[in-house]
Amino acid sequence: MDVHKSQLIFAATLLFAFYTSAADALPLHVRIDRHVAAGQVGPLAGPASDGEFICRLHLDLTGRIPSSAEARAFLDNKSLAKRREAIDELLVSPEYARHMATVFDVMLMERRADKYVKTPAWRGYLRDAFAANKPWDTLAAEIIGTDGNRTDVPHAAAKFILDREAEPNLVTRDLARKFFGMDLQCAQCHDHPNIDDYYQRDYYGIYAFVGRSFVFRPDAKKPAVL
């Protein structure tokens, strides 16, 4: 490679690094809005009115519509920052933690019948996690990694695997769907026929983590563990 070409490649690399760093420095909501706008098909909806906003906000964060008093207080508020303030207020409310516990219970357990962990205990664990603003990577690590016998993680966190009877293929498929956003069921037998980057090795990479797990409960009076 000649010197001139090397210099061009070096300069291009520096420019790429500069613009990437500049983009990363933008607030997260700005970067998300840019991605949404870039992939938008058709016209964008206009900004929500105050009435629409407060109704949607309560439905999303608490699972209910606002009371008449809550709606009126928001509509009468003249602050330019009232939407951000309303979001922050609901995010620290007990209703938010309770609602998110229900949402994540349905999402992760798909209304399965209780086997080894009762739903109230599981939802209580999730509710406490959201109330404490526990990071998602920490919450996921507890759900996937606990054996139900740790002193630093509640027994209820093991429900995801325990109540699937630790059946390795079922747990592998559901870990892929719920935590990686990949439906790898076809990849149990072969690389996915329709999705180029879903490989059989992906499936068995997860399987290797759970394949030797089993439910252990020698005494029916004591909680089951993995």
Distinctive features:
226 residues; mainly alpha; 11 helices; globular
Task: Write a structural description.
- It is a single chain.
- This protein is mainly α.
- The protein has helices at 3-24, 28-38, 50-62, 68-76, 82-91, 94-109, 119-131, 136-145, 159-162, 168-180, 200-210.
- It is globular, with a radius of gyration of 24 Å.
- The mean pLDDT is 90.
What is the averaged pLDDT score? 90
Overall, the morphology is globular
Q: Distance between the terminal alpha carbons, to the nearest Å? A: 58 Å
The succession of helices and strands, N to C, reads: HHHHHHHHHHH
How many beta-strand elements?
A: 0
Q: Number of helical segments?
A: 11
Q: Give start-end ranges of low-pLDDT stretches.
A: none
Portion of residues in beta strands equals: under 5%
State the major sheet.
none
Structural class estimated from helices and strands = mainly alpha
Report Rg.
24 Å
